[in-house]
Amino acid sequence: MTAALADAFRSRPEFQETDSGRFTIDGTDFEARVTVESDTVTLTQKLPTLDSTVQGETVAEVVADGWEETFRRRVADVGKVVSSPGGEPAVERTGETLRVTIELPADPQDAPAAALGAANYVEGTWVEGIVPGYDYDERVQAIRNRARETGGEGA
Fold this sequence. Notes:
Elements: H1 2-10, E1 15-19, E2 22-25, E3 31-37, E4 40-48, H2 50-53, H3 61-75, E5 90-94, E6 97-104, H4 111-128, H5 138-151
Antiparallel strand pairs: 1-2, 2-3, 3-4, 4-6, 5-6
């Protein structure tokens, strides 16, 4: 089954194989990788903490902690988008990076779409948490600008 799973990802243009059974996802703003191994599909995303994206000032600890807690609670709802045999996603913080790991269904028919749906949900959850009033680095500012262009000036 591992070969069929890997082939399912190879057949989709959104996935780029970087090593045998390891894929990056095109079209995400933050690093998203899929690993197919021993009939298991795992999505791993690395996203910055709020404070690491703010320029010119330090985010107050209470704001940064509240932001991270809210992100963790919201990202746990990824199960509403895709079923996870491993239950809720794991969220680990290392320095200025949050690492989200989700086990996905190991079905060649569904795994690529599940990976894309989960990756978009996690990234969208991060974007929803952008706190107004701060100056952000170029990557986050570009995300905000796209939102304004596609959703109107209130974004």
